[in-house]
Amino acid sequence: MYLIISLLLILVGAGVLCAVKWQAWFVNQPEQDYVVAQRPNNIVLTMGQDAQHQRIVSWRADTAISRSCLRLVHAGHLDTVNIAADSALIYSQAGVAAYYQARLDNLQEGQYSYQCVSGDRQSEWHNFRISDLDTTTLLFFGDIEDKKGTPSRLMMQKALSRNANVDAVCYTGNILEHPMDKYWQVWQRSLEGKQSIVPQIAVAGSNEYRKGLMRKIDNRWTHVFGIPQNAPYRFLGTSTYFIDFPTARLIMLDTHALNFLSDYTIMQTWLSRLLISDPDKWKIVIMHQPVHYAATGRYHPALYLAFHEVLKDADLVFSGSDHNYVRRQEMPQYIILNSSDRNLEIRKDINQDPLVACYDEKMKGYCSVSLTYDSLHLYTYDIVHDRIIDQLSLGR
Question: Which of 62, 64, 175, 299 falls between 20 and 30 A from 7, CA-CA?
């Protein structure tokens, strides 16, 4: 009898929760109609698995696939190399676009120029540099999810002007307000062309997923971010992957792709292997939802149980989602970062946690991380008040 009553109470509770959360969990906002330019546009530079020798360039052009390539010139060389581009016709709620990716391998140190070509139309020329990466500088942004683009554009301008020689820009997810073309364009405009010069490294957040009984990543994601295909088979097509720098290994965990218990097991095993292999590199993990929550009511027990022990072999773990700043110092250093105008109330007992080294409920900004083989330096910048609010140095 008690068992039956307990089951009924659970069912009623689940029904009430679904009714309250129905809009948030299952309803997608309609996407506005959009038109795609015929000339190559929305050009984004990313990295392959080997950060020192591989780049991936993605773009879109028109609404039908045409023969496309990337023209590449290495400074000091007269030859132009034509690299064939992979293509895909991507349909969304309100439009269709042809997307292209060109994968560049065996790159050497120096300056490169490139041009994207689709059919009889081409982009302007863009430049990027391959450095030795013995000293690596990375910028980390939390949730941006800007509706109009002005706040994020100003933040990006400040961050990139202060870090002109940054090697890559990294995101902890929720780049978009919603998974629709309008907000993809907001993100593109916010970077003012830097996304075709500085490699962009990202993990998806909840806003990049379409809602439903089974969440599904926006089908533009892996065509905008030309990510290395080195995830476990179950997670190919998500934003799970890793990139190796000479000094560090960056591991992106798409926590929104975890739907079944077996998903947690597969990702846990994969993550453990990446963290314990290649011990000479710093290990940095990027995941949207935090293992140690900071905002009221944001606890993720499944993530904690699955990854807390495994992550002890990492050095830094970056997350977003909670819309505040917290650094929890243990091994690893857990960092929750916020780059949006939205803030959430921080949990009341945060100041009683002896492992919390720094927190700021109203923070909006980014982290700069500089890495050598022997040292790691982190600085957290509050953009609104133009100040450093936290810093950390680690050595081997």
Answer: 299
